[in-house]
Amino acid sequence: MNGTAPASATALRRDRLAAWVMVVPALLLTLAFALYPVAQSLMSSLRRRFLGVPALGDTFVGLENFRLLAQDPVAHDAFARTLGFVLLSTVLEVALGVAIALVLHEQFRGRGWVRAAALIPWAIPTVVASQMWRYIFNDQYGFANLLLYRDQVARYEPWLASPAWAFAIIIFADVWKTASFAGLLVLAGLQVIPDELYDAAKIDGASAWQRFWHITLPLLKPALLLALLFRTMDAFRVFDLVFVMTQGGPGDATQVLQFYGYKTLFTEGRMGYGAAISVSVFAAIFALSLIYIRTVGSRLLGREDR
Amino acid sequence: MTSRLPLRLGIAGLVLGSLFPFVWFLITSLKSQHEIEAVPPTWWPSGSLEFYRTALFDHHLLDYVLNSVIVAGGTTLLSLVVGTPAAYALACLRLPGQRWLMGGLLCISMFPQIAIAGPIWEILNRIGGLNTHWGVMLPYVTLTLPMAIWILASFFAELPTELEEAAQVDGCSAWSALWRIMLPLATPGIFTASILVFIYAWNEFFFALLILTRPEQQTLPVGIALFQGEFTMPWGELAAAAVLATLPLVLLVILFQRWIVSGLSAGAVKG
């Protein structure tokens, strides 16, 4: 309130009340279906209990589930695999995102259509994308085999039956699906770089590559970090691709944490142990975001201060 | 001055790379049963619409479409009804702990689904929400609220404050200021948020899989993920179903890409 508006004390109080009434429904929903469930998962992780079968008992076991988790080789593999997936897919997505952003930043005829085309992978359901890629890498009818081996049917490869290929294909499909999202975040960063900088560099005789390396990339840093952050958080939750394309297989070759947690909770019904896995995933993401905010965020802020 | 060739290659690669899997499914959906079983696969389809017919009638695709329309439409409506006043209050009114609330919301949108899945299943089990559309809409609305509120708040924040002050001078309450003055001006924001929430709800799979176990209530992503034939994988029908499930989104993207792009980068630009 800076002087001009004649707001009486009661009007102000009424305002504040209205403000609270406006946010309360959103807060209640968030409380009931996001915060309470997280707290409940935490409680569950300290208990031995089973989904929908209260007869099997519900006892407090302390940190027993976490002790089991620490000794569970399947969980260790799933954790390492998830980390590998997150690292490879986010780096590739952001790198490809920069390329996409550079293309979309240029002026050319039909740019709107190209941008729409680039948005298609992001917009379609992940489940549909998964089925598309599963079909493309099919051992008999797949486009990949057709492209590589034409009519040499004997050489046709069962891609998704190979552990290494299956993992690579999951990453590939994820990169295809989300690189355009990373690209849009980078594009937003590109658009705030003033043109004068490039003009000045051109006058100084800098090559296109030098301009990219010494102007674009450093100034793009905040946008890149943001894209990296968003993609990392999201890649940790990879599930749909794995569910549709490989069901975690072959063997356990593509079993990621969220899929392992899903199986433990809902096909085996081990609520306590499943909750311990959930809590660990949550803790990992939380720790990761803290590290990001600490290292990246402070540097980012420091840069903006100057 | 600079050569346009790298740009042309980039454009071609981008368009081809983005559309190719979709085009391959489109081609597949237009094949005949005979063509689909060919090894090596045929390049061009005969243009048979047989798979669309069987997908629609034998696989009850329209039921899934209807379920998806209800769930995605309902989620969008509820998320906006709950999110708009909240965004207005957070952006324009004096609330203690505003920054904390906005930051907290952002955190919630980052939650791994698995961390809340078990308890949400149990809550819905207790209140009879399993295998119902409202049961799946509750978590959807909750999880899309952060996105809706962030987009809307950034739109509200850009509106000139004089408008509101004028409204206050005229004795408008906060509610009527929102309803009569701010809301009409924030229509682009509401539109943007609606599109993004709709796309999220139309595509979501994880919670739908958990909550909707009966085919009568299942949404398109669940139907497509669990698509099965009696003996072999019915790729032709699946491709037809996938094309039909994707078409609304392709249309949304073509018509509203400007809004989508601005919505996606609404939080990004400000950091």
Mean pLDDT of chain A, as a whole number? 87
- Overall shape of chain A: globular
Radius of gyration of chain A: 25 Å
Question: What is the residue-averaged pLDDT of chain B?
Answer: 87
Residues in helix, % of chain B: over 70%
Q: How many strands, what sense, and barrel or not for the largest sheet of chain A?
A: 2 strands, antiparallel
> Describe the biggest sheet of chain B?
none
Please provide the count of β strands of chain A.
2
What structural class is derived from the secondary structure elements of chain A?
mainly alpha
The helix-strand sequence of chain B is HHHHHHHHHHHHHH
Shape type of chain B? globular
Q: Roughly how many Å apart are the termini of chain B?
A: 35 Å
Largest interface: A-B, 109 and 95 residues
Tell me roughly what share of residues is in helical segments of chain A.
Answer: over 70%
Uncertain runs of chain A are: 1-6, 300-306
Report the oligomer. heterodimer
| Count, helices of chain A | 12
Tell me the structural class of chain B. Answer: mainly alpha
How would you explain this protein's 3D organization?
- With 306 residues, chain A is mainly alpha-helical.
- Chain A contains 12 helices and 2 strands, in the order H-E-E-H-H-H-H-H-H-H-H-H-H-H.
- Chain A has helices at 9-44, 64-70, 73-105, 111-123, 126-136, 143-149, 163-191, 195-203, 208-235, 240-245, 257-267, 271-305, and strands at 47-49, 58-60.
- In chain A, a hairpin with an 8-residue loop joins strand 1 and strand 2.
- The radius of gyration of chain A is 25 Å and the shape is globular.
- Mean pLDDT of chain A is 87; it is low at 1-6 and 300-306.
- With 271 residues, chain B is mainly α.
- Helices cover 76% and strands 0% of the residues of chain B.
- Chain B has 14 helices and no strands.
- The longest helix of chain B is centred in the first third of the chain and has 32 residues, at 61-92.
- Chain B is globular and about 75 Å long.
- The model of chain B has no long low-confidence stretch (mean pLDDT 87).
- Chains A and B meet through helix 1, helix 3, helix 4, helix 5 and helix 6 of A and helix 1, helix 4, helix 5, helix 6 and helix 7 of B.
